[in-house]
Design a protein that fits this description.
Blueprint: E1 2-7, H1 12-23, E2 28-35, E3 43-46, E4 49-55, E5 66-69, H2 73-85, E6 89-92, H3 108-111, E7 121-123, H4 127-136, E8 145-154, H5 160-170, H6 198-211, E9 217-223, E10 230-238, H7 244-253, E11 257-259, H8 266-269, E12 275-283, E13 286-296, H9 300-320
Parallel strand pairs: 1-2, 1-5, 2-4, 5-6, 6-7, 8-9, 11-12
Antiparallel strand pairs: 3-4, 8-10, 10-13, 12-13
Helix pairs in contact: 1-9, 4-6, 4-9
Length: about 325
């Protein structure tokens, strides 16, 4: 039995975490739900019982409980130190601690071994990074990557409930500059001095950390008028010639990956757990270059499900020792 907390339980990702936990086989002795003062008085049903939403306090945390964080990075830096000091374990979905040297950044199908017995803070990667490494991870053993290029077409749910609400409002009007409706916004997050956005830098930095291999990632991220499901166009330059057939075989054998030339569309993956890879092909002028598309539910596998999978790993380690 495990005691679980969710911080940010009333947000889009927090709500999906509750849903994924509902479906899991985990034996949960107690579930505590935390949110800001805006959620005062709210209750949420979990496994047939109402759970009152608690307001985050410095003394909310208990030794040994496992907390799933679904807050902004700024908020995470406020509550996580207190939770760690209280002896809690934390799986944080924000970017606050992802690149800290001593914090593992984990996608269970790819690098579950990164979690050691002394780790009490584990970072959940960015949604676009998770589905990218789900496709790259099984291919590492074919040949080293010289570089990877990825262009993302990210749904508005990546900006939370506010993004979905904005798209719904805008669909009732004519398209406008800066709106999601019938438009593509060619930047996600603030632009850094390098000219890259925060979302692009996450792909550059997080991908090699998870795969434990150093190679350059060339990203370009855009927001598209889709509610749920991120799609990525990926190009890999290998160190030697590689056949599309070999790549397809490795991906078909990979846990959590589904190869489908028809399914690489957001409407086909919404509500599912797998990462879909399709249109696997060699570049006609360079047989060391492979291209394909990757699609996944960004709120589910890209956030909530991945966090719950890490939670399951922690519980297993505490019960039987490291896998």
């Amino acid at each position: 039995m495990v005691k679980v907390g969710i911080v940010g339980a009333t947000g889009l990702v927090g709500d999906k975490m509750i849903s994924v936990l509902q479906e899991s086989s985990l034996s949960i002795s107690e579930l505590r739900l935390f949110a800001s003062a805006k959620s005062t008085g709210r209750t949420i049903n979990f496994r047939g019982l109402p759970h009152a939403v608690e307001i985050i306090q410095n003394d909310s945390w208990e030794k040994g409980m496992i907390i799933l964080g679904a807050t902004s990075s700024e908020t995470a830096r406020q509550w996580i130190p207190d939770a760690l000091n209280a002896g809690a374990y934390i799986i944080d979905n924000s970017s606050a601690y992802r690149m800290d040297r001593d914090v593992p950044l984990v996608v269970p199908e790819i690098n579950r071994g990164a979690i050691k017995s002394h780790h009490r803070l584990i970072a959940n990667p960015n949604c676009s990074t998770i589905q990218l490494v789900m496709a790259l991870g099984p291919l590492r053993s074919i040949a080293p990557f010289e570089w990877v290029s990825v262009t993302t077409y990210q749904s508005v749910s990546g900006s939370g409930r506010d993004g979905i609400a904005a798209l719904n409002r805008q669909e009732e009007k004519s398209p406008e500059v800066g709106s999601f409706h019938r438009n593509i916004i060619c930047e996600i997050g603030s632009t850094e001095p390098s000219g890259y956005t925060g979302e692009e830098i996450k792909l550059v930095m997080e991908t090699p950390k998870i795969l434990e291999v150093n190679f350059p990632v060339f990203p370009a991220c855009a927001r598209v008028p889709v509610v749920t499901g991120h799609t990525e166009s990926v190009t890999i330059k290998f160190s030697k010639n590689v056949t599309a057939g070999k790549v397809r075989q490795r991906l078909e054998e990979a846990s959590g990956v589904q190869v489908s030339d028809l399914g690489c569309q957001p409407v086909a993956v919404e509500g599912t757990n797998h990462t879909v890879v399709g249109r696997i092909r060699n570049h006609p002028m360079d047989q060391s270059v492979i291209q394909f598309w990757v699609t996944a539910d960004n709120v589910r596998k890209g956030a909530a499900l991945n966090a719950v999978q890490i939670l399951e790993l922690l519980v297993a380690q505490q019960t039987t020792g490291p896998a």
